[in-house]
Design goal:
652 residues, Rossmann fold, 4-stranded antiparallel β-sheet, 23 helices, elongated
Length: 652
Amino acid sequence: MRTLEQLQSQYNKGGAELARGMKFGGGRGRNPAMKGKPKNLKNTVGRLMSYVKRYKLRLIVVLFCMLFTTVSSLIGGYMMAPIINRITEEVTGEAQEMSKIEAIADKAIDWFASTDLVSALIDKGRVAAISVYVFAALVILGTVYLLSATSSYLQARIMISVSQGSVERIRNDLFEKLQRLPVRYFDSNPTGEIMSRFTNDIDNIDQMLNNSLTSVVSGVVSLLGTFVFMITTNIWLTLITLVFVPVFFKGGALIGKRSSKFYSAQQAAIGAVNGYIEEGVTGQKVIKVFNHEDTAIGEFRLLNEDLRDKQFSAQFWGGVMGPIMHNISLISYGVTIGVGGALIAIGKLTTGALTVFAGYSKQFSMPINQLSAQVSTIFAALAGAERVFKMMDEAPEAPDTLEASEDEIEGHVILEDVTFGYIPEKIVLKNISLYAKPGQKIAFVGSTGAGKTTVTNLLNRFYDINSGEITIDGRPLASYKRDFLRKNIAMVLQDTHLFTGTVMENIRYGRLDATDDEVIAAAKVASAHSFIMRLENGYGTVLEGDGANLSQGQRQLLNIARAALSKAPILVLDEATSSVDTRTERHIERGMDRLMKNRTTFVIAHRLSTVRNANAIMVLEKGEIIERGSHDDLLELKGRYYELYTGLKELD
């Protein structure tokens, strides 16, 4: 059994992406470990805001709602001062010396208390004047807080539409760019890495726009508004509160730095666990065949125990932030109350003013905590946005330079001295020359990595050649528009891919405007009609999980039917039968024979029995054609093909 250190080093890297939510649902919650900062902050923010700016009017309304909510909340709190002062006067019999703002609020309540509306709501003859005053004040407070709640609701509702609209546009732009990227990009970037842009990164952007952005703006507005009201209430108590602000920031920074370290360790441990789980699930048959269940259980326990320990440290330091900041806030509150009590004793502050200021003092710390809590989320979202924009900035397929006429293609293909390498320093094909007349079948055989599939990639212009020339019907390949060219080249690959949908829809993918009768006819050409009719709902059977409810041979027959429906004059068969048994292979070959009729066909095969009837067979080794001819000619030559066919030398 491997040690913990060995398991961590082997599974950390592979599971890191999974831990970030690609396959195992990292979720939409804030992840403190994801603190990567964008390299170009200004550019990233600018591009992100370009999506948000499309909703200028809504943003203005949201900002107004934020201001109204904050101000109304502060005003509501401030109106408590004259109420408490009146009650204190009533109890003690001593007049309270109120500030100018308190006096203004007091007069406003008195005026409202004397209106006919209040008279209609309360019978003054049966209650004391103080009760009328308090009732009027409560009506005003209730109205203010009701308007504040309504404004807050509108702010949240409108901001959701802004964030979701912006994210929708980002996702659309990203997917649209994905369709324009060359095959080279997908060959050089893992699928999981690409998927994480659509899931984890865009989810982080969504969370920032929907929650963090409004929290930050609202927090700043609330902080400034509270500060202004605190100063108008009492400047000396305000200065005492400000003394504790550096303590808030310093304490938050120290705890955040320490918790970040533990969260990073936790994230690495989650990656190791998830990587091990993924490998264990996909390799479950192998584990059982070799009786390694106990070993797998033991290794998983090591990783799981390590994750438990690191999660404990991370959750402890992450959870201690709130209580510590809360206690600092209580200390500030206690000092403020103590000093305020002394000011009341010497007649420099009213009881109501101290009550209101105490509320502001507690409220002042909330935006600071709120802002510090959003920093990691914002940086994670901006880092994700930078990765999304980087993908959007990838160079698309080179544009078609010639406005070629879309004449009907017959299928006369010529390769002349073609040289190609996926990277300049490593040549894959060297001086390849061959031709195929319309209706001919050309086969490629040779060792793995000899360049067989590369030839077919060049025909589709998935890649452009380094030198030489490829022509179809006498015209250079580059003179055809890519979409027109690919409509005229059908492919049947070794790895079939079926989309979620009905059998009918999957076959129709070969030509979207095909009628149902044409789809059925294509299925008959591919020898797929009989097994389709045996399915529960025939052509209406829904396929899920890449056709998991079908056998490999049945999936391949649907792939052949799709190619047959396309009516393309050029056909590429890339090891189409290598993953099926011999009986199924013969069934598929019957479908392919019908499919290849009257089409120029290029066949790549490991099973040499499938290429015996080819017009010409090309034997490739290390990117060069070392032998060519018919099946019989190559056997008489007794060279490399003879060795492969007779089993004297196996294919690598």
